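Friendly challenge for the regulars: who can give me the structure tokens for this chain first? No prize, just bragging rights.
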Amino acid sequence: MENPKMTDAERQRLAEKLDKELDDYIDGLASKGSRYTDGFSPDNWEEEMDKHPAFRTKPLEEGEEVPELIAAMQALKYDEDETTEERAVQYKDDGNHNFKLKKYRWAVDAYTEGIRLNCTDKELNVVLYTNRAAAHFRLGNNRSAFKDVIVARNFNPNHMKAITRGVQCCVKLKLFAEAVKWCADGLQLSSNDTQLKEMQQTAIKLQKEDERDKRKNALQDKNAEKAEEELITLIKERGVQLSSLNDEHNSDGGQPNDSILKSVETHHPSGAKVHLDDSGHLNWPVMFVYPEYRQMDFIQAFNEKSRFVDHIELMFGTPGQVPWDTEQKYSVERLQVYFEDRKTEQIYKVDKEETLGKTLKHKRYAVYNGTPSFILLVEGSNYEKYFLTNQKLVT
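First reply, four minutes later:
Bragging rights claimed.
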């Protein structure tokens, strides 16, 4: 007798029944014992893999707890029953292996563990410190590398690898005189060492170039200081007051001191500062401040012979030229210029038809941080009334 043919609906019901029976069976197995919850998950698989010594790709961070698997591997490899020297040798071999694989940070860690054992074998300590210096050197930790070779030579002053590495560190640190000295120490031990002879010649050449550059820079600094002193004298002759230039300074007729020279240095990122042009005119970096909108303009070179209105026309001569002036009320005709006497907190109005040079001679004006600053307000505006009402305007 032939089995009746199943319909699609009957097939679907049977599949659902079998799935449910399988789920019930698995749930039944799980209920008989504890469910395992410490395995990998999509969220933690990378973290779990990194705890396994076979897959870990980075050394332990300082203070990081050693994962159980790594601790177990260490316990197998570094037997507590072995002598301190034997364990130090194993750490040295680990460091050498990682160094060959260019895993220099791992190498540093291994050599460090060997050093921490404080074994009594001096030559082994020399090797550990010298090899760690090599690993530090490859990582660009030149100062740490140099410290290590110094310690290595404390154990054995005649260790050639330590001397050679020390020369390399000195060159990287631009301690050229020290490099020459280390080369001399090495050549006393091995006068025919070709590598050391070449390194010595290089160090001597670099030392001479460094000394030449230092003399050149010292001369440039001296010339620059002299030029600034002459500039200060010229500014004084113009009748301009600098914030740190007062009767206390230079009262004996001597040269301006450092605090005075700094008073002509601007704090603006551009580095612009007052200077003389080819015509013998002072050009100042100048700040225009618009307190109503908390905006400002920085003019890198405002010639002392130029008028305020000349710059205002460049900035506000075309309607809509300034994006923050949404009301378009900042115009050449309406803008007024003021400055503040910081000592008295009084406000003085400036004739915008006047030149910068004449304004800077005002008896109440002082230049701060090498940058003359001025306040610009719109004449007749509500903000001008508010601002001048809250300030001490001198008429």
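Residues 245-261 have pLDDT under 50 and may be disordered. The longest strand covers residues 282-290. Your move, everyone else.
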